[in-house]
Input
Amino acid sequence: MNNVLVAVDSSKGSRACVEICARLFAGRSSTTVILVHVVQYGGPAAADGLVSDAELSELGQTLEGSPQLEALTAKAEAMIVTHRKFLEEHGLRDLRTVIKTGRPADEILRAAAEYKTELIIIGNTRSLINKLLMGDVARKVAHAATVPVLLAR
Output
């Protein structure tokens, strides 16, 4: 496997993702791991498509260059560095980090296509009630992906 996308955030599911990735691909010099985090503004309603693309775009333009977006981006960068260090400590060397903004499932799928990944690893630790009420990024990615998806717990 040449390119593996690992979707990360600050959840325990993301820790499971990087742990599984390390177990599967440590020591394989031919594997590139792409760590992807999606900065989500607009809350769960935006992630689940309850906010229109136009409204989300307008919100993004409003936040562009704002202290709020800078804080979200700084938090994302710090979090992704933690995951990267873990993978480096476990022998993975060819690592890329990508931070996107938008709807998480959509952006993860776009990144998978952009980087020609052959596997997506994503966390799946939300409770059933949260999945029913708020939707589920992992489910959306698994359903729409054109490559295998490994759900980490």
